Request: fold
Amino acid sequence: MGEDTLNAIRIAEILEGLATDGLHWASNEYDMKRYQRIQELARSLGAVPIESPGRIPASPVTPKIGVDGALINQNSEILLVRRRDTGLWAMPGGAVEIGERPSVAVAREVQEETGLIMNPTRVVGVYDNWMDRRELAHHLYHIVIGGEAVGGILKPQESEIIEVQWFGTDRIPGPDRFHPGHWSRVLHALEGLVGYLD
Reply:
């Protein structure tokens, strides 16, 4: 059975994980009831008694995982997005979904935010956002994955992205114009770094 094969037990584990996160972050009783129902259905699907402790912890206790796409073109330029929430520059990226491989997640996020199809080829590095020394909503590990665009049309995701641009080393905005942590990661990607660990 390949690692991507989804059987009933694996689907149940993914659904229970999603329900657990939903229960942790739900802000009203209606959402709580919906996530509890998903949890019950997940346990039924996985043949786990409803009253038994879940396979997943009762609340998220480990760092979340994010991916950032370091797309470099033939002119040695990197693709950056300017985020709508902060107005700052960053690599395109986002959260890895439960049951999703990082390489799949980064290609999905890049396409959603920029319209380009990414071929992920290498890990630039793994970064800990606590090292950014800022106020945090979550503890995140960011996997910066390098690659190239192999298709698509450059088009920013209007709900999250103000603009998308290619930048060479001579045109990179200053550190104060970047979302926390991204400036140094962009430089690592442009230097061709592979396998950096915080």
The domain at 64-197 is CATH 3.90.79.10 (Nucleoside Triphosphate Pyrophosphohydrolase).
